[in-house]
Amino acid sequence: MTVADTLDIQQIYKQGIEQTNGTVGHLDNSQEQALKALWARLFEHFDKTQEKPILVEKSLVAKSGLAKDGISGDDSSAIEKWYSENKSKVTDIKHQLVRDKLYLEGNHEPLVPANFAPLFGDPSDSRTFYNAFWQAALRHRSPDTYLLGFLKSSEWDVNKAFSRLEHSINRRIQQDIDRLMWEGDLIQNCGITEKGLCIQTGKDKFGSPVFIVTVRLNVPKERTEADVEKFAAYSLEKAAQLARNYNDRALLLYDFTGFKLENVDTAFSKTIITTIQELYPHTFGATLLFVNSWLFSGIWKVIRGWMDPMVARRTTIVKDIKALQEFIDLSQIPASMGGELKKEFKYVYPRKEENDKMADQAGRLKAERQLATAVDSFVSETRKWTEGSDVAGHNADPRAQAAAAFDSAATELDPFIRARFVEER
């Protein structure tokens, strides 16, 4: 473990220098060795599991709405019949999805294509580990960044990092994360989405995007546990993707202003914490709890017990606007929290034209082939590196060139494989 790994988040922001140690291009000899060893371990696993499918057993997409009853998104007669038979449910705030509200208001046109297809020819009910890994790696400018997140959260223990990475990929497959992002807002609980329970607004002192969870907007009796799990997974995956152009880093801020007993929801908190630790170990460089409430003190003792040491070091309580300004400039703090940012959230519903490229099968095929070529090149160069004696990895050509090609191909493919976010409207 390095000195930078042991600094808590307050020390880092007080220094005013973003910690680059342990990131691509800033690795010491032992860190390069660990990265090299983790790639070698991963290649062994790729070779062993290349053709072995992993079933989508806990799909977050199939738990509610049309999908739960096996209704295809392009079967208009079946959809009309389903809405007629389920009118009381789809008008209930606890169960209504964004798609339901749009349909009931007369918008019957599919906003995303019904023919979801995983990358690289995998069937919709299973994925191979290899293909799922590369789908997950698309969230990063370099595949090395993805692995380094697990190494840092595992204190550079290669075996522990591999176990965490393997679990993460298996969980992504089982929960159908790629299909969840294909569907986008449409299958999210309408009440949660309209309120803006988790939104991106402003930047922190290092220029990373800030994601705010407004805790008073979370009312457990107004939604199902399945919707919370689905929303948490969607929001965190979205945050990781939006952080891609900001050194893969973001700040997570929980605003407890107006927090009441009805907002206490330890299940939601545990879902967020465990999902971050298992799937996004390095996305959130800091997590702030903006709170000055006696009600929170008992909850905090429980929540802190769920955090691994790395996440705990990145988490801190800020009790007032002055303390919050150590992390975020006043101009970037929402006015509702005492800052100067007078940007109010208003949910903008999805429109068909924003997802036009998702229906362009020829365009997707071309972009997917470009990605496959980039992956093959990166894998080839990285295998050479792991099999050789040279320690330096990312900075050595042609491996760095292969990583750049992967980045370009991932950016090109993105609009073909996921619905746009509200932040992109």
UniProtKB/TrEMBL annotation:
SUPFAM superfamilies linked to this entry: CRAL/TRIO domain, CRAL/TRIO N-terminal domain
Transmembrane segments: none
Ranges where the CRAL-TRIO domain occurs: 202-345
Record-linked PANTHER family: PHOSPHATIDYLINOSITOL TRANSFER PROTEIN CSR1, PHOSPHATIDYLINOSITOL TRANSFER PROTEIN CSR1-RELATED
Name by which UniProt lists this protein: Phosphatidylinositol transfer protein csr1
Species, as recorded: Coemansia brasiliensis
